[in-house]
Records
---
Amino acid sequence: MELTLLGTGAPLGLPRPDCSCAVCALSRGPRVRAATALLVDGALLLDLTPGAALAAARSGHSLVGVRQVLLTHPHDGPAVEVPAGLPTAGRVPDGRELTLISGHRVRAVPMDSPGTGYEVTSADGETLLYLPPGGSPAGLPDDHRVPYDMVVADVTGRPDALARLRATGAVGSATDVVAVHLDHDAPTGAELDRRLAAAGARAVPDGTTLYVGEYHEVPDVPRRTLVTGGARSGKSVEAERRLETFPEVLYVATGGSREGDPEWAERVGLHRERRPGSWRTAETCDLVPLLEEDGPALLVDCLSLWLTDAMDRVGAWDDGTWAAGGQSALRERTAELVAAVRATRRTVVAVTNEVGSGVVPATAAGRRFRDELGRLNAAFADECEEVLLVVAGQAVVLRG
């Protein structure tokens, strides 16, 4: 099944008309994206957008052979002129299945928002799922027996849709996931590619022709990632973003709760509100048992609070205790944690802090914490396939 993406952008395109944001300013040349429209085997057009005939011609195709035009979502704004010879565009009621003269079978998949998804099966059995902007399936079985060969969806706008598809088995390890409906709320260029790769997806330029069912190397999602950065740099947001397309995540909060501390309660509340409702939370510093057992992906936030707890347990804040065995006890704890990270079979994303680039702490205990956190970060990073430094909300790849 041949699939040509006549456009890959949001309904208003990218850059948006009359928008002066940074992403729109950078969306020039090959980064320009027209509204998303898909041409399947030259016979089926999914979404009719302005300039569809010209976009097809630019990609070396024609709309002359199109026998069915299906819409996935309400099209706001002025009416789109239908090129001569094209059939009238329409939407299929949820659950209804069409068999086209070309041999394709098309089933309308209900969404959790206004719009319709389409499951397309070729005469040879290749399967494609195309979802509208801002849409997630609401009608897939909980045990989708055979994964789709390709999914084309709003990965940046609805990452939870991809998580849902993975949870039901509709997206498997070999499914080619292509991001479309790209808008200015997502980054562009290399940063977009990096973010999508973390979700096991990819983006392609307008006019790209893909072959559904043809082998394509799925982006390799790092199994262990360390995200570091300064205070309020955006490191926790970056860590959460890396797992938002996973069907299950255990969020490990090493800070616990602090009675009588409203500022801490506010911080915890903000983190909790950002997390998907399907994630579970564990408030613990006992990371080694979690790393040793099988289970869903772990998001550990953060190692600096884990180290604070570890130093509390060995009395490392007191100079005398530190010299009398506290140092060796702490090193044993950190070595045990690092060994568990090395051996774990789980997907792990850990957050830590960079505290060695600022003012030198005034106390011996403060300097001790700074030094031990630097050592822990370095040892933990050595066991990770990917290491990111977040500065002013921008992720810089240090490894991976």
---
Amino acid sequence: MPRGFVAWSLASVRRRTTMHDHRRLGRELELFDTDPLMGAGLPYWLPDGAVVRHTLEEYVRDAERRAGYRHVYSPVLGKRELYEISGHWDHYRDDMYPPMRLGAEEVVLRPSLCPHHALVYRSRSRSYRELPLRIAELGAMYRAERSGVLGGLTRVRAIHLNDAHIFCTLEQAADEARGALEMIARAYGDLGIRAARYRLSLPGAGGKYVDDPELWRRAGALLREVLAGAGLDHEEAVGEAAFYGPKIDVQIVDAAGREATLSTVQIDFHQPARFDLHYIGADGAKHRPVMVHRSIIGSVERAVAHLVEEHGGALPAWLAPVHLVVLPVAEAQEERARAVVREARARGLRAEAVGLEHGSLGARIRAARLVPYLAVIGEREAGGGLVDVRLRGGRRVGVLRVDCLLGRIAGRVEARGTVLWE
């Protein structure tokens, strides 16, 4: 039986109707797993899960490219001094892994990408004509989460974050933050998920936060302006800010009613000052940029967990590990089924043929219920270059030419979104 097919069959039979737990579904769908030898909070991705993850990552990168972002790579390690400058060492040390000594230096697994991107910005002199400069990376970071809070993909120690930092003038900051919220809304539509609410996260009491009241006032005022301009109702939450500035948190709710943050938009005056970032203005003088932090889908781990639960494993067609299953009615049509699979793969589609060794036609159709598209080939279809098309959920489209079906599927995959057929 093709890889992953048994998993999809089991999930379709055993999934709960009231709640979809991504930890159970993720294992049944063979998306991810864990091993004690790797350690708690360090899941690994199985082949079908890697397909979902790769597709999601490419979707985000494409959206960013279209929006004018430039992609970079930066190392997962940094000298302890880097995080002392950024403020992470003073304000975030309890969530960081301890330093590792390399000769005379101490290096740390990074808990965040923003210090690295600040160094990318200051790698050379910048002009106001370059701003806004949008830098994006889908990068790994590491947080020393306590064992008691770890769970599946939603709370892990190795995080792969869809992160970006926009370096801009003060006058550009609100528009850039608003543009980030628009990107988030488009992504949620394509992924078939929704925001439960928007939260403006503000500082609380204690030494967790940078002590600069004017910084907090200015950044908070800008984010309120952004939310109001976007027409988004929001709630304010004291004590939920990042240590360096307030943020807009896009909250989601899972099938069990638990709330979590998926996407964020932040305005930061702190780190540009700490790293002495500047640009040359039209007046020829140095000016301090504003740093807008934003993440469209947050961490890949949490995004996939939510998608699996939201859709009960029946992911949008463009994200599904398998787009099309081809089912021959009799042994005589098996070679034709394999030929259709080859045509589908040549078009960039993910397709599998499932033959009679896996049971009756009815059993194979039931087993493939989570696959978006099913093509049945009987004697009549095989002789005429046709397929009998069914959609996930049981809808029968009818008999189509193979090239017509593959073109329709390729169009829906390219368009992304959640609609299977139009």
---
Amino acid sequence: MAVADVGAEGGRGRRAFIGSFTSAGGPGVVVAAVDETNGALTALSRADDVPDPSYLALSPGGDILYAVSETAEGAVAAYRVTGDRPELAGPPVPVHGDGPTHLGLVAGHVLTANYGSGSVTAVPLRADGTLADSASGVLRHTGSGPDEQRQEGPHAHQVQPDPSGRWVVDVDLGTDSVLVCELDAGVPVLRRLTTLRPGSGPRHLAFHPNNSYAYVLHELTPIVTVCRWDAGSGELTPLGEIPVLPGTPDGDAYPSGIVVSPDGRYVWTATRGQDVLSVLTVDGDGEKLALVGTVPCGGHWPRALTASGGYLYVANERSGKVSWFSVDPDTGVPRPEGSIEVPAASCVILG
């Protein structure tokens, strides 16, 4: 992957950060410049200090980038990203979990969802946003699902705060459930549990901007479950399901990422087995979704996507491309605009 030779002393515009699997030939963490006139990305630099930094998150101030290390040992790392080249801010911190695949920032902590061990780990943050020396607590999931190959035990796949910042929402593919937790002295504590369709394999959840609804995308069944969300009580209540693909797919579908448009009018999902993005419209206050259709994802095996500035960005893992799309404001349908090469790309976020 070629990168431009741009130093931190130059004028700094908006940045994108891309995670990748180093074990599959990826470059690690990639920093890219964002052209705000057309959404285009230009790779600037990379850092391969941490193996398999598959998922990333930015600090609220945008000066620290956090990355999981999706390995059997499991760790989380912090980078300073005030310049164009990320600089590791201390050694990675073990999460006492196998295969952390997602992370989120909650109440002065980084939380990781550890897929292999079916757990969530909290690591405190120092005042400057860097990581403390060790984790403060681990919540271990229990249970299984009917799919004997994929659901033999718990598999935490995503962890994030709800928009109010009070609750930790934890999606478990292995147990067909969403756990709602709180941090108690740095330890994730289970408060509520919502069970979803058996064998559906929930993977990721996205909130509507009004914080009254949440949408759960399933990996083992190509559907989204629409849920009512009560931020006061932490109750997540399933209301119904909507398919993300027209008709019955040929072979396994493996939906992956889900994102809600900033104005709450559209939901987009990615499906790896079909190499498509799905467009769903949101009716009224967020309670009902309708599938509009699908478009090609701009590569092969779209693992994650994000929406920003009227553009949709997709990390296509197996084709090694991060593609971007402009979005028709009247229909929500993405239109391909370009891509850059990032081998084994797994995540893209914008700061």
